[in-house]
């Protein structure tokens, strides 16, 4: 296992060095006597790798900022006394549109070039199909965040000179994504070449991409439960019949390697640099949120030491040594959301910033390590969705069984992260016995399922998914935010605003989408959000 992991990490590092060379040496291509549209397989592989790592946030702060400073605060995984954490306080940020801009200008553009270069070539059918699956993954994040977006014309600037793409309705995008997944999955052929080591998610394993494709189909199908239950049922059943994830070995993730900016986990790096460097000695303004810590402690959740650490010692007297930390669950404490260093005194009258040392931070030895993987979709998520599908009568298997499998998968997945934290089978079984799916009503069972979904999704990429799942289900029940000047009236924001640049560079299409979808505000829900 260690040898395989080392080889995978070495391959990732080598690939990224090659990509850096290939992308950094593009000056003067117009002077070369070559066809700029004639791609070779190695170039296609590099472009695909580049798109994968960019989707994970490597090399750009825009995705990381959105995932951590916005969504982790919105869903109350994290809290900050810093006024620049807009997601914690539901206040305006001129950077809410950055994720949109980066997605289209970086990894979606690269994917379109891969798709165009491999289209209609039988020997590259897997390259084309996998790129299409990943395009759908990348764009589903964008439409879930903004609503109506450019979809059919996305990333076509270089290929077709479409510099002002139209916005598609989300009600059209979702059927297109689902049918697109079905088509791409159907094209996968294990007997034909794949990406090999250029695929830093599944290492070119076509069967794994098929499983991921159906698992993503299940996620998208369940988004439709409030707006088109019939379509949701149809597509959920197709996904289940096709074959979704069945173990943690199927998780879609990108491994990271600390020590190099091109390979480390950028979410962890940026959060550590800005929010809790060792120089802060426990007094940084960013902490784990009270909502998260309270829910974990109330359930005696064995994942709490994996998620959280607390600085120990007298921070005022120790000057040079590194303060020790503790993962003792009983000592962990969450910071309330929606306050700054002054307004926190409304709930803690004797507050001083020296008290920050008493509040928990993400565990930098595990979940917040520079070596921590970026998880795109987990097996635990799939089992939670299967539990809901069974609850709705769409699957003959037991909702209780899927619920237990989901929690177990989440707890067993801690070994995939640095620190090799092992939650014992006895601890897992004790937790399952104390947390049965036993509510008397459908809504009660939905709350149980999706509260556990929330607790399982505190991982770097899945702040996106926790926010989307909260908008669809309403769980968990989040605390209202009353920070002065908040733009939602205290309720969590339900979408992001489009980039300001769209109001001028793509003015006609921007005005059309606002007239159709509703005001470009954080309180305008996306199509599938019908809580």
From TrEMBL:
It comes from the Bacteria. Keywords: Signal. Residues 1-24 form the signal peptide. It holds the Pfam family SusD-like_2. InterPro entries: SusD-like_2, TPR-like_helical_dom_sf. This is Starch-binding protein. The lineage of its organism: Bacteria, Pseudomonadati, Bacteroidota, Cytophagia, Cytophagales.
């Amino acid at each position: 296992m260690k040898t395989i992991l080392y080889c995978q990490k070495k391959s990732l590092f080598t690939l990224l060095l090659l990509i850096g060379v290939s992308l950094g040496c593009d000056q003067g291509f117009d002077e070369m006597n070559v066809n700029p549209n004639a791609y070779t397989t190695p170039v296609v592989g590099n472009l695909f790798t580049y798109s994968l790592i960019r989707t994970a946030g490597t090399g750009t702060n825009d995705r990381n900022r959105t995932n951590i400073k916005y969504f982790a605060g919105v869903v109350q995984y994290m809290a900050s006394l810093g006024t620049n954490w807009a997601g914690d306080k539901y206040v305006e940020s001129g950077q809410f549109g950055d994720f949109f801009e980066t997605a289209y200008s970086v990894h979606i553009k690269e994917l379109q070039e891969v798709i165009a270069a491999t289209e209609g070539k039988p020997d590259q059918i897997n390259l084309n199909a996998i790129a299409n699956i990943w395009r759908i993954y990348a764009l589903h994040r964008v439409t879930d965040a903004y609503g109506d977006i450019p979809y059919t014309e996305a990333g076509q600037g270089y290929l077709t000179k479409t510099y002002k793409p139209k916005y598609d309705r989300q009600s059209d995008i979702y059927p297109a994504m689902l049918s697109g997944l079905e088509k791409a999955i159907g094209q996968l052929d294990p007997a034909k070449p794949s990406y090999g080591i250029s695929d830093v998610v599944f290492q070119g394993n076509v069967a794994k991409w098929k499983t991921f494709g159906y698992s993503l189909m299940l996620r998208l199908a369940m988004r439709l439960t409030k707006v088109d239950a019939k379509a949701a049922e149809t597509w959920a059943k197709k996904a289940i019949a096709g074959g979704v994830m069945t173990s943690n070995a199927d998780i879609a993730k990108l491994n990271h390697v600390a020590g190099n900016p091109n390979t480390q986990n950028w979410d962890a790096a940026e959060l550590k640099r800005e929010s809790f460097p060792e120089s802060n000695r426990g007094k940084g303004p960013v902490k784990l949120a009270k909502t998260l810590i309270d829910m974990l402690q109330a359930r005696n959740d064995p994942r709490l030491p994996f998620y959280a650490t607390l600085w120990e010692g007298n921070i005022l007297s120790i000057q040079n040594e590194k303060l020790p930390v503790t993962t003792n669950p009983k000592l962990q404490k969450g910071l309330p959301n929606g306050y700054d260093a002054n307004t926190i005194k409304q709930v803690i009258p004797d507050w001083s910033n020296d008290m920050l040392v008493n509040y928990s931070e993400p565990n930098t030895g595990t979940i917040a390590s520079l070596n921590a993987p970026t998880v795109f979709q987990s097996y635990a998520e799939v089992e939670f969705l299967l539990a809901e599908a069974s609850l709705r009568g769409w699957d003959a298997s037991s909702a209780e069984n899927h619920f237990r499998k989901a929690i177990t998968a989440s707890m067993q997945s801690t070994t995939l992260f640095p620190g090799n934290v092992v939650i014992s089978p006895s601890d897992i079984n004790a937790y399952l016995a104390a947390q049965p799916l036993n509510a008397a009503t459908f809504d009660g069972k939905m709350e149980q399922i999706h509260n556990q979904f929330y607790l399982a999704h505190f991982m770097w990429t899945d702040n996106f998914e926790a926010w989307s799942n909260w908008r669809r289900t309403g769980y968990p029940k989040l605390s209202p935010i009353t920070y002065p000047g908040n733009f939602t009236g205290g309720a969590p924001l339900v979408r992001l605003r489009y980039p300001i640049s769209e109001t001028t560079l793509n003015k006609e299409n921007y005005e059309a989408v606002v007239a159709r979808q509703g005001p470009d505000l954080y309180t305008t829900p996306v199509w599938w959000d019908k809580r």
